[in-house]
Amino acid sequence: NRTYTKAKYLDRAKKLKEMIPNIALSTDVIVGFPGESEEDFLETMSVLREIRFDNVYAFIYSEREGTRAAVMENKVAKSVKHQRLDRLLSVQDAIALEKNLPYENTVQRVLVDSYDEREGKTVYNGRTLTGKLVHFTSDGECIGRFANVKINKANAFDLIGEITK
User: Fold this and answer.
1) What are phi and psi of 49, to 5 degrees?
2) Nearest partner of 101 among 48, 151, 161, 148, judged by Cα
3) What's the angle, vertex CA 22, arms to CA 17 and CA 27, rounded to 5?
4) What pTM was estimated for this model as a whole?
5) For residue 114, which of 133, 100, 96 has the smallest C-alpha distance?
6) DSSP code of residue 83
7) pLDDT score of 64
8) Which burial class, exposed, middle or buried, applies to 155 when counting CB atoms under 10 A from its CB (0-12, 13-18, 19+)?
């Protein structure tokens, strides 16, 4: 039921990147929808590589009773769905890490939204202005506030840092 083409999607992403050069883009992907061929999957992978999303929320299609897709033919084998998801995530992890590495040794403004207790320490969680997930320690309460955080380590999914004064 998509109302757009691959070309239109790519064009919109290109225009966004031209208007906002440091924009962070994310998308949702479902692999293994009934009728998805290897060629279809490779088209999805080409979009992933061309746009270079900062984050991809990827899922294996799971049948939902009562939907049109549940009665569609050409179901994709479970093993193929898992293999495609692994391939997609492998490519995306490399892209995300490459996009996160420039954050190392920079100070980012982070909106702090939660904390966890880890190994006896309070670890705060927040997002940069481009939506990057950041974890850091702080001596004081900072939920609901902006904090300047020096990024010490970039991973594919998150950034690790320490609060600065």
Assistant:
1) -70, -35
2) 151
3) 65
4) 0.87
5) 133
6) H
7) 81
8) middle
